[in-house]
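Limitations

Structures in this collection are predictions, not experimental determinations, and the ligand pose is part of the prediction. Treat each record accordingly. The example that follows, with manganese (II) ion as the small molecule, is included so readers can see exactly what is and is not provided: the inputs are given verbatim, and the output is the predicted complex.
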Amino acid sequence: MERIVEIIRGAEKVLVVGHIMPDGDDISSVLSLSKGLKLIGKEVMSGIDWKIPWVFEELEEVKDIVDYQKFLNSGFDPDLMVVVDVSSPDRIGNFQELIGKVPVVVIDHHATNDEFADYNWVDRSFGACAQMVFRVNKELGVEYDENLATINLMGVLTDTGFLRFPNADARVYEDATELVKLGGKPHKISSMILENKRTEQFHLFADVLEKMKTELDGKLVYSYITQDMYKKHGCTDEDSTGFVHELRSIRGVEVAVMFMEIKPRLVHVSMRSKEWFDLSSFAKSIGGGGHPRAAGASIEGKDVFEVMNYVVPKLKEEMSRSEKS
Ligand code: 5GP
Ligand code: MN
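Predicted complex:
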């Protein structure tokens, strides 16, 4: 960490980049680091090469995030790119084009991180990347106000399932407490993310439940969403991010999987496990990545049924093997 803090300290114009299909921890990490760097006088741009899910639009700072095209149009000429919560270069979309042209720092906590940057601070023991950003900001001497504390807290809460997933260790609780003491508002985040659903999402979820299948005596549960289903219910992939958690919450389930055709012939596979199955290596074997209990992959050129036919048997086999060993 000391090394990357020195590199960030030495830069003047910093581009802070997150991943495609951004989640709460990623948006929190991008915005917290961007804001921290601005507070210590740097010129900063925040980039995510994907549409920001509507739930996060309540955060004013979200409108300052640019995609790659907007970044190019802005003429901003960074002397450093800091990539947060990202395990491999394909996850930053077209910002990949800057690799090799500007020095790149990565701050990440993914088990599958392949250390693709010039300077990597990768620590898999952190529940959220936002905890790592919190440490970088403090080391840089950033003074936290209520707004920055709330934005930073968002990542700590969302990546730990609001402090209840197995990654919610003592350090997570300590960081959350410290951020609340600095003015962070957990209720603002929980009401924005957990109690802000559209009725269309429930109708889509009802459809998902109807299509749900179980395997291995209920240890594996999965379902899917086609493009037609999204259209029928007036939804997009932004509306279905939490569904996989609901499936995992079923008694006896070890692994839950959602297959979502987020664009024609682009299927996102979102996976969660409960106790023992290591999803990070399984996700890697199908071209994705992630953490032991939360991982995913995006598969192009196949429809949802083709992807299920490929992934489900493979997963059943891996689960049976890993249960026996
Ligand atoms: P989610 O299911 O919420 O999309 O993703 C769960 C976890 O897996 C996240 O930590 C995310 O970064 C990772 N992940 C999801 N999709 C991909 C992917 O296509 N490639 C890689 N490397 N990681 C992914
Ligand atoms: Mn994360």
